[in-house]
Amino acid sequence: MVVLRIRNSHKRKCVFVCLCVAVFFTYRYLGLPRGGQRTIRKFGLSANSTQFTLEMQSFRILGGSIHYFRVPRAYWRDRLMKMKACGLNTLTTFVPWNLHQPQRGVFDFRTQLDLEAYIRLAAELGLWVILRPGPYISSELDLGGLPSWLLQDGSMRLRTTYPGFTEAVNMYFDKLIPNMVPLQYKKGGPIIAVQLENEYGSFAKDEDYMHFIKEALQSRGISELLLTSDSHNTLKSGGVDGALRTLKLQKVNQRDIQDLNVIQPNRPTMVMDYRTGWYDVWGNLHHVLPPEDMVSTVREILRRGMSVNLYMFHGGSSFGFMSGGLAEPSYKAFVSSYDYDAPLSEAGDYTQKYYLLRDLLSQFNKGTISPEMPVLQLKEAYEPAITYQHLSLWDALSFTEGPFKSVKPVNMENVPMNNRNGQSYGYTLYETTITSGGILKSGDNVKDRALVFVNRSYIGLFMYQHTELAVPDAKGQRTLSLLVENCGRVHRGRDLDKQRKGLVGDILLNNIPLQDFMIYILEMKPSFIDSLYQASWKTLPETPSFPSFFMGQLFAYGYPSDTFVKLPGWEKGVVFINGIHLGCYWSIGPQQTLYLPGPFLNSGINQIIVFEEQESDYKVIFEDTPDLGMAADVQ
């Protein structure tokens, strides 16, 4: 023990205060009581009766979902404080495997993906945590959060005990779970429960799979309460012995509750995903759920003595190419906004739902004073940015990965790049030589959308509904180019194994398969965007070619504020601010603005690069309010 001899009384007081603070944080983070022993937490969250208990005391889960990977790290504290101020006591979050392991053997838990820091922040703010580590999570993500390199195996069977899948899951859990174990409740952390997989009952291809996931977590040290989560009609097939079954729903239906209680009598009833809104897809309307409907359903859930988790409490944004797609009734890609019509908006603003929910929970949490609501961040309508420089796609090809040659088309997942892990997102350019015109047929082999060029002049588009094009006649050899975009692998369904992108089969000209391709990769990673600053940009001509990159500048003086990017007169593409991929835009809507958080901006000059496929107004607008499109009620 070190003895401090300090004669000055003022200094003694300062040292005493500092020591007290140090001891407090030691207790807070390491779970040590005043006697110097580790805090003894004997009884974690239990589901052995009709109500949850925590340390043998009755406990009601009042949860909300906020995904750390959809919120700028600079705003994590703000969003969680707003959750606490609303009266919730539990944070739930999914863990996206595809973002944490972009390549075999390559893991990323830094900065924006620092899950451990996120959970410790929740604990600091007095929130419990329900962890949802997957490996499959859905969440409207590309391939439901599974990494695309799994699809390099032509025999892959995702979400089963197929050895190729279980080996990959084990490799991922070996890295993820040891970091989560010390954060469990009985070890002094905030994690009170862990969910196994997600809505497996709607998939249910392998009766041994959920047992495998359960064992994979427990064998690595997960010892808190286990949960599963399914819709009412798939509860039975999605559950596993030793895990509490929970419900997903948007409206309380007595029969759904009865079905759960029949399958699982004398156990707590929990709505693990009460959907506060809905997702949006390109080409449809923006979905909203009336605030009165939301609060009346939550009130009914509480009246029945049930626990609840709001999905989402705050949706945030699916930055970059994170969004997936919807398979049924026909393929549609998700928009970049994940606002979800949640109680906290995409930019973290309070909504009518938030105020109604806070009032309801304040009545429910009698005797508990909720913290003050944090002050909102200012929004700024910056001066428009004029794109003054131009770089055609063809001039940018020297900065891409490739080209590489292939006799036949190669799908994105199997292109020899990223240490042979294939291509996850973005565009792929396929070029070959033709000597005649005629009818070009794609069949069902373009995934998902292809702009077609002859000698770099646009001739048409391949999509799911458009599979034939006329190629004009001409003499001599010409270059046929197909710029194929992965609009997002579907996030759920029984055909996940078939979600390969790019050209997945032959393209026919006059019924003859084309061969001998040069393939360029446009994954548009930060390293690629950074390299473009070294390119020979040209002053914007009167009639620029397309597809092209356009560069402009945003000036933000002082401390930068949040803003919303709007591109009227532009057709379809992606936006980068200071090298950060904000997301995709498309004139068909519903989403009309992209959220640009203030922390992504510098004080002073900010570089904007827009990749536009077909048409441009050359001006980028910044507004102080979002525009998610014409709204329609969730059905």
- The CATH topology name of the largest domain reads TIM Barrel
CATH class (first level) name of the largest domain: Alpha Beta
CATH architecture call of the largest domain: Alpha-Beta Barrel
The whole-number mean of residue pLDDT values reads 93
Lateral arrangement of strands in the main beta sheet: 3-4-5-6-7-8-9-11
Overall structural domain count:
3
Number of helices: 12
- Coarse morphology: globular
Fraction in helix: 10-25%
* Main beta sheet strand tally, sense and closure: 8 strands, parallel, barrel
Structural class: alpha+beta
Tell me the fraction of residues in β-strands, as a range: 25-35%
Which spans have pLDDT < 50 for at least 5 consecutive residues?
1-38
> CATH homologous superfamily of the largest domain - what is it?
Glycosidases
What is the radius of gyration? Answer: 26 Å
Distance between the termini: 67 Å
Q: How many beta-strand elements? A: 36
What labels would you give this structure?
globular; alpha+beta; TIM Barrel; 6-stranded antiparallel sheet; disordered N terminus; 3 domains; Jelly Rolls; 36 strands; 8-stranded parallel beta barrel; 12 helices; 635 residues; 20% helix
